[in-house]
Amino acid sequence: MRLILLGAPGAGKGTQANFIKEKYNIPQISTGDMLRAAIKAGTEMGMAAKKVMDAGGLVSDDIMIGLVKDRLTEADCANGYLFDGFPRTIAQADAMKDNGINVDYVLEIDVPDASIIERMDGRRSHPASGRVYHVKFNPPKVEGKDDITGEDLVQRDDDKAETVKKRLDVYHNQTKVLLGYYNNWAQSGQAGAPKYRRIAGVGPVEEIRDAAFAALAE
């Protein structure tokens, strides 16, 4: 199973990625983790990336694709792999195609912006333990207080509505075009084209998981 997981920030990709990884026994390819590992290991690509990052620049698509190709040769990718957060742009998607990095499925988790904002903006966390609540879906017994310690809950800056809206704007401007890119490729009938599947990402986590598994079995 080789797949790309697409969806807006806050759509629940991380949660579903964990279910998919376990079911198919495949690793999640995170470009951030990959970069850190390559730099730590001192690989050629890792050193090239470090040089750019130390100078305050953005790592080029060529280096990122090189890192991805290196990563996919590792033993844990024998059964496949799951990309989450890559590619982010059409240029990266083209580079993957040009370098023969194949995928079987592109799975889109579709959640309306309003649902994402409600989901994120309602989160409250207990910093010391990492326990997370939601003012609507999973409220604490006492408003604003941790169930176990009684200490104050906080809202992370990343979860505030204005921050979430900005992240969604970036997604719509930069990454959403990938949905059309992969959908059109899937419908083209070309050799090597992935299957494109869209599932609704609203509702109980288990229902979304079952929908994802069903989509990947088609």
UniProtKB/TrEMBL annotation:
Q: Where is the region NMP?
A: 30-59
Any Pfam family from its record, for instance, is ADK_lid
Sorted alphabetically, the Gene Ontology BP terms of this entry are: AMP salvage
Residues engaged in binding ATP: 10-15, 123, 132-133, 203
| Domain of life (superkingdom) | Bacteria
Q: Which GO terms describe its cellular component?
A: cytoplasm
- Free-text domain note: Consists of three domains, a large central CORE domain and two small peripheral domains, NMPbind and LID, which undergo movements during catalysis. The LID domain closes over the site of phosphoryl transfer upon ATP binding. Assembling and dissambling the active center during each catalytic cycle provides an effective means to prevent ATP hydrolysis.
Listed NCBIfam families: adk, PRK00279.1-1, PRK00279.1-2, PRK00279.1-3
Q: What is this protein called in UniProt?
A: Adenylate kinase
